[in-house]
Write a structure and sequence with these properties.
Shape: elongated
Structural class: alpha+beta
Radius of gyration: 26 Å
Number of helices: 2
Largest sheet: 5 strands, antiparallel
Strand content: 15-25%
Amino acid sequence: MLTRRSSPPRGQTLVETALVLPLFLMVIFGIVVLGIGIFYQEELANAGREAARYAVVHSATAQCPTVSNRDPDPALLPAPNSYFRCDTPASRWPFMTAEMRSRIFGLRATSVRMTACWSGYWTRDTAGSWAAYDQVAADPVTNAPNEFRDCTVPVWGWTSDQNRDAAPSAQYVINPRTGRDGSGNEITVDCSRDFPLTTVNDDMASSYAKSNASNANQVTVITCTTWNPPLSGFLLIPRSVTLASVVTEGLEYQQ
C-alpha cells in the first residue's frame, strides 16, 4: 500500500524569513545604536568631570588659574597677593576646553561645547542686600549661616512648548543644576552652537579657594553635543540626539 507524504509549501521558509528578518534587524541595530549612544554619553560625562577637575586644581592661587568673571579679594590671597587672570571666560577657557576635548574619544572633539560658572556663599549687609562673595558657610564669630548662591549660564535653546524643528533657538539664562530659567521653564539646550559668554551676573563666586578651611566655592561645568546616530531617520532611530553632562566640584587651594 502506497502512502503519500505531504511536503511543506514551497517558499514558506522564505516568506517567514522575510517577515521576521526586518524585526530581528531592527532590534539588533537598535541595541547597537543604543550602546553607542550610552558610550558617547559616558565619554561626555567623563570629559565634563575632567574639565571641572582642571578648574578645581587651577584655582585662583595656581600659577595659571582658570577663573570666573569675579576676581577674589587681593587680601585673601597669599603673599605677595598676586593674581593673574590666565584661563578666562572671555576667551572661553582655552586650557580647560583643551583638557576637556583631549578626553573625547569617538565623537568629534570640536563638536563638543562647554561652559562653566562658579557658585559660593554670600553675606548680606544691614539692609538685607547682598554684600560680599567668597565667604565661608557660617560666620566664624556669630556662627550665623551665610547664604549659598547658585551660578547661572546663558544658553541657546527651546522651552518645552516650542517645536525645536520649526523654531530657531533663542537665548536663555538657566541654573545648570536644574536646567531651568528664572521663570521655571525647562530649557532644551541647543548644542549645535557655542554657548554665549558668561558675565559677572552669572558667577556667584571667584575661583578662590582657602587653605586649611572651606570657603565652599564650587565650579559647575556643562558639556554637550548633538549626535547624529547611524541609520538616523530609519527604524525609529531619531535624526539627532542631544547628549549633555553637568558636573559640580569644590575648589582646591593651590600653593
